[in-house]
Amino acid sequence: MNNDRANxxxxxxxxxxxxxxxxxxxxxxxxxxxxxxxxxxxxxxxxFAYLQTDIDTYQFTPPIDSSDMSLRRWAQLVRIIxxxxxxxxxxxxxxGTDTMAYTASALSFMLENLTKxxxxxxxxxxxxxxxxxxxxxxxxxxxxxxxxxxxGHPMVPxxxxxxxxxxxxGNRSTKENADGFNAFNSFNYPLLCDAGIEFNFHPHYIxxxxxxxxxxxxxxxxPNVVVFSLFPGIQQNxxxxxLDVPDLRGIVLRSYGSGNAPQKPWLIRLLKEATxxxxxxxxxxxxxAGSVKMGRYEASFHLKEAGVVSGYDSTVESAVTKLMFxxxxxxxxxxIRSLMDRSICGEITRG
Length: 351
Ligand code: ASP
Hints:
This protein has nine helices and 18 strands. It has helices at 38-43, 71-83, 100-110, 134-146, 236-243, 265-276, 298-305, 316-329, 333-340, and strands at residues 11-19, 24-26, 33-35, 53-64, 90-94, 111-112, 118-121, 159-163, 166-169, 174-175, 184-185, 193-195, 199-201, 216-217, 225-229, 250-255, 280-285, 309-310. It is globular. α2 (71-83) packs across α3 (100-110). The protein has two domains: 3-217, Rossmann fold (3-Layer(aba) Sandwich); 225-340, Rossmann fold, CATH 3.40.50. By secondary structure, the protein is of the alpha/beta class. The site of aspartic acid has 11 residues, from loops. Aspartic acid binds next to loops.
């Protein structure tokens, strides 16, 4: 749908700079890119003055490469947004691309009943470089974060990633390209907006929050989660080693195709022992597109019998952070498993 009615009236956006390539410069000694401070970024963006949005800024000190993103920093982001929630119409988070999809997924669970846009963006080339993609990504993200409908409601009241013309639901996003400008994709959910010459919002796919309810920030996450991928020839001692990790409460099992695993009795036995101990094992596919369908083949039927739950069409980033979120909130594995089976904020489509 071409939504001309989406107007971009003068709104207030809080721009949170965490780091990432967008604000990096080259270290003259090592030649490596390293995060610079925010003044550098702003100095390279005279376009700021033309934006029809009031912008305040908050900067992580020091700014980080997103490879250093952590649960503590996700909680920090949640606190910044919660503390400033009533003063701004939207939030833009400048973030390195490497772990942006994890942060977007985590925030989608941690900001319960979000009614304002939280848009993450970054760039593949630093903003100071001639061919940078950072300017367009930043300027468009600010416009998207302040775009409202005729009733004054935000066009996209959810956690999203904006990158290279695409607005993607945060917990459906994956970094797919380490080199190209087109770094992110959403393989199992349509785009929320195509940003070409004009914004082409797709309201049908955008979450509709209950504006009468307050936003509830959550800062607790449980990191006792592991991701492991199956591969032909995987050894029993390797799997046992993973499952024996002390305090482990959640496993994201990356299986084949529509959720299949080798039908080896030792594998099923080990998985069953873990689920009986209260570990939640979530089955997602190694394929980027499509969904797990447990029981479709005999090769996944046994997983079901072992107590493994379906992750449907979840991304790995979303499955990991959802487990961290639910494990911090609930002690009981049955509650966690039943919530893994439901969509909390649009992260899965149940087949
Ligand atoms: N290593 C950088 C980061 O994630 C890459 C980037 O920003 O694109 O912080």
